[in-house]
Amino acid sequence: MSPASPPVFALVDCNNFYASCERVFNPRLNGQPVIVLSNNDGCVVARSNEAKQLGIGMGVPEFMVRDTIRAHRVQVFSSNYALYGDMSQRVMETLQQFCPDLEIYSIDEAFLSLSGFRSKNLSEYAGTIRSTVKCWTGLPVSIGIAETKTLSKIAGGIAKKTPGGVFDLLTCSDRDSVLNQTAASDVWGIGKARSQLLHQHGIHTALQLCHADEQFIRKHMGIVGLRLVMELRGISCLELEQCPPPKKGITCARSFGKAITQLHEMEEAVSNYVTRAAEKLRAEELAVTTLTVFLHTNQFKEVEQYSNSLTLKLPVATDTTHELITAALQGIRKIWRDGYAYKKAGVMFVGLVPASRVQADLFDGKDRTRSKKLMAALDSINERFGSGTLQYASSGIAKEWKATFNRRSPAFTTSWDELPVAR
Ligand SMILES: [Mg+2]
Questions:
Q1: Is the pLDDT of residue 54 over 80?
Q2: Domain end: 145, 172, 199, which one?
Q3: What pLDDT sits at residue 254?
Q4: What is the CATH number of the domain that holds 114?
Q5: Last residue of a domain, one of 126, 146, 172
Q6: Based on CB atoms within 10 Å of each CB, which residue in 37, 45, 335, 422 is the most buried?
Q7: Does residue 400 belong to any structural domain of this protein?
Q8: Residue 114 in domain
Q9: 8, 142: one domain
Q10: How many whole angstroms from 44 Cα to the centroid of ligand 1?
Q11: Over 80: is that where the pLDDT of 299 sits?
């Protein structure tokens, strides 16, 4: 690819991703309304097209649509993140075969740089990508093509409603009407506040935003806003971000399935969260210098309220689970108060440093090489046989506080015990 070739981006987006993942291993669901619920089976986080047509909104609590679910036999699933994460990886690996320059934007979206493919018919190429992803993973995607990332997002939105699943803004003869049909609030990067501001100044569509006065945009939305307008005009300002910026922090926090009233249960929960967060830490080859633990009661219930947090500086940066559990448990015992019903707790690792550059403390008596080997063994066993195969005793066995996923499908692709069975 010559550096002079003008940029072309494709936005690949999986359609109704979580609902589609459920369908891959359960073809009975094809043509039926499917929804997926958030943690504790609380709110709707994904809907198949059929469920959308029934008027089930994004983010609504499950109990509010229970009548619709019953009347139309909507198939309901708890979130199955092991399955979704693995399916996401399969999609991204497939995309990489077609285009090495790729930015994984979210679990179900990626930007591709197609600048080097301009000699090809891009719509056709996108069609091939789309059918290959469908064939290799079973998942439907839609693809939008344009000369900037912002425009490719808009094209992607239209591709979703196009029968072939591909929309190329480069060859579209009436770009103005496309932008005119796109609400300014739907433009990538326009949040609630900005969309209100634009509204007040008579800017309602992407086309109006595209032609907006530069002085005005600069004054009210700064350089970021100006860049966005340029992108709408077809001038590429945002590049592909192929290496994500280093993480600033790792958090693991969950709501409990049932309220916790006993300290030993809280200790179990926190031990589990630290274990998860430490696994992520090691996967990114990082170590942590500071950690925060927090807990709170249910703010939406009329119970006596209490919340607190505590930040601890660790003597030496570490990525070792048992050291982190020890520190977190000290913290949680300090902020624990008897007599409350706790709804949520969590742990946050901040002050992350590369694990390779950990400074040894002169008075650090711990055998670091040994810990390192132990952690490597722990991670590889848990990766091979499923998370939690080996765990610390402080993490507990029964885990009655755990969030409920009563309607979760099996981890078809990541657990030997849950492989789909052919009949
Ligand atoms: Mg999607």
A1: yes
A2: 172
A3: 83
A4: 3.30.70.270
A5: 172
A6: 37
A7: no
A8: yes
A9: yes
A10: 15
A11: no
Q: Is residue 149 part of a domain?
A: yes
**If you measure from the C-alpha of residue 30 to the centroid of ligand 1, how many angstroms do you get, rounded to a whole number?**
18
152 shares its domain with 296: no
Q: Please count the structural domains in the chain.
A: 2
Q: What is the CATH number of the domain that holds 350?
A: 3.30.1490.100
End-to-end CA distance of the chain: 49
Residue type, 63: F
Q: Are residues 144 and 14 in the same domain?
A: yes
Q: Residue 254: which of 402, 74, 374 has the closest Cα?
A: 402
Within a domain: residue 83?
A: yes
**Which pLDDT tens digit goes with each residue over 392-409?**
877 777 777 777 777 888
User: Are 165 and 268 in the same domain?
Assistant: no
Query: 289 CA distance to ligand 1 centroid (A)?
Result: 36
> Would you state the pLDDT for residue 2?
45
Distance 17 CA to ligand 1 centre (A): 5
Tell me how far CA of residue 88 lies from CA of 109, 132, 255, in angstroms. 9, 15, 25
CA of 350 to the centre of ligand 1 (A): 30
Q: How many A from CA of 13 to the centre of ligand 1?
A: 5
